[in-house]
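Tokens in:
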């Protein structure tokens, strides 16, 4: 099962964190940009190749520290087909380094279209007598807004291919409550209704650690809501964005974990991949060794979370 493999990777690294690979060309150090712009001009292709080179150096720097990476597809799609090729190559390279890959794409649609999204990221596409995989991901983020018929195709492929799913429940952005906190006829908030649905999916097929392959996205910026959601979703693993740049800390994410220190994977993107530009790490290394700052930031994040979990 996906979830058992993820939990074992977390235990092996002693680190429940994931690095979000959310690059823009302006994030990439100048020496890398110069190399590819000189070669191919100011083109989508050059930008995508520079981003992949940047990602590889970060992956190499953190692969022995973190169990997983989370490339966000929007940051690649804006560079067109070349950007999506960088997304594909990034996922392949991370897998080669032994990392769990969570494709952060937030996909969904009506059932038949959702099935196509699912084939792209979780399953396989039929081409004549052959089956081909478009993207080498272990798990995918999805939105539940269309209801169960938009989720079920993904769940089926999770079961068929041993993959995982993280359904948006309570997101980390400031305006999330505009819709997610609305009260339904049952007296529960919308995100609580989604949480109950996600937990039922998780409970239907649990692994040896008590969690299912269907997890939930729960923002680090809402610790009180996370505490109540942990009680509702006892079978669902949490993917927790919002650590670092959005204000989440080791203390604010404690409520996402169970009493054994399991149940959550904490995500950080800019605070890791842009560490070389931050006040804390700036100037610590030459530009050509920027990735060492990312490594330091990943270690500091790991230690912050571990220290916070001591008081669970």
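Residues out:
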């Amino acid at each position: 099962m996906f979830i058992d493999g993820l939990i074992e990777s977390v235990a092996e690294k002693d680190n429940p964190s994931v690095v979000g690979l959310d690059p823009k060309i302006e994030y990439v150090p100048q020496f890398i940009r110069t190399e590819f712009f000189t070669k191919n001009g100011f083109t989508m292709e050059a930008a995508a190749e520079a981003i992949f080179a940047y990602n590889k150096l970060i992956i190499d720097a953190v692969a022995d520290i973190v169990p997983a990476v989370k490339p966000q597809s929007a940051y690649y799609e804006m560079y067109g087909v070349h950007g999506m090729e960088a997304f594909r190559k990034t996922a392949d390279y991370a897998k080669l380094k032994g990392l769990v890959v969570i494709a952060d794409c937030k996909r969904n649609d009506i059932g038949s279209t959702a099935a196509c999204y699912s084939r792209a990221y979780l399953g396989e596409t039929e081409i004549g007598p052959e089956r081909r995989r478009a993207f080498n991901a272990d798990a995918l983020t999805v939105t539940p807004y269309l209801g169960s018929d938009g989720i079920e195709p993904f769940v089926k492929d999770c079961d068929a291919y041993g993959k995982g799913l993280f359904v948006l429940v309570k997101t980390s952005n400031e305006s999330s409550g505009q819709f997610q906190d609305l009260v339904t006829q049952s007296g529960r908030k919308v995100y609580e209704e989604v949480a109950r649905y996600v937990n039922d999916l998780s409970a239907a097929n649990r692994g040896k650690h008590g969690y299912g392959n269907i997890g939930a996205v729960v923002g680090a910026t809402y610790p009180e809501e996370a505490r109540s959601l942990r009680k509702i979703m006892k079978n669902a693993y949490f993917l927790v964005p919002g650590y670092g740049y959005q204000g989440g800390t080791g203390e604010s994410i404690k409520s996402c974990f169970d009493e054994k220190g399991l149940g959550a994977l904490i995500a950080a993107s800019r605070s890791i991949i842009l560490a070389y530009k931050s006040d804390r790490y700036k100037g610590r290394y030459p530009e050509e060794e920027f990735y060492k700052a990312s490594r330091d930031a990943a270690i500091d994040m790991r230690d912050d979370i571990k220290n916070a979990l001591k008081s669970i």
